[in-house]
Automatic annotation (TrEMBL):
Gene3D superfamilies in alphabetical order: Winged helix-like DNA-binding domain superfamily/Winged helix DNA-binding domain
InterPro entries: Tscrpt_reg_IclR_N, WH-like_DNA-bd_sf, WH_DNA-bd_sf
Pfam family, one: HTH_IclR
Residue intervals of the HTH iclR-type domain: 33-78
Name of the featured protein: Helix-turn-helix domain-containing protein
Length: 107
């Protein structure tokens, strides 16, 4: 628990910091960042992208993007060729095949 100022009679009260972050921060920012990268590859025909292309198309900071790309390569979600370009990996293909057989949720 983090001590946070609540502005009540100039006193301090104990409140979870999450209560203050929820309106401005998604529950799991990392998942949203990975989804941005996946969307770049899934938004058109199969293609190979450079690091600069991915950074430009996602709007992510270079360091953040690099860290995520490394993890995505290690988990087989992406591959990086000898030309240093990235492409969808077999891990995402397995997810796509599984999702294809899942009924769409009703809205």
């Amino acid at each position: 628990m983090v001590v946070a100022y609540l502005g009540v009679r100039s006193s301090w009260a104990v409140a979870p910091i999450r209560q203050f972050l929820e309106p401005v921060m998604p529950a799991s920012p990392g998942v949203y960042r990975v989804a941005k990268i996946v969307d770049v590859f899934a938004s058109g025909p199969p293609r190979r992208l450079s690091f600069a292309d991915i950074v430009r198309e996602t709007g992510l900071k270079r360091a953040t993007c690099h860290a995520i790309l490394v993890a995505m390569i290690e988990t087989d979600m992406l591959i990086r060729g000898d030309d240093m370009k990235y492409a969808l990996g077999h891990g995402l293909a397995r997810i796509g095949l599984a999702a294809r057989d899942t009924p769409a949720p009703r809205r």
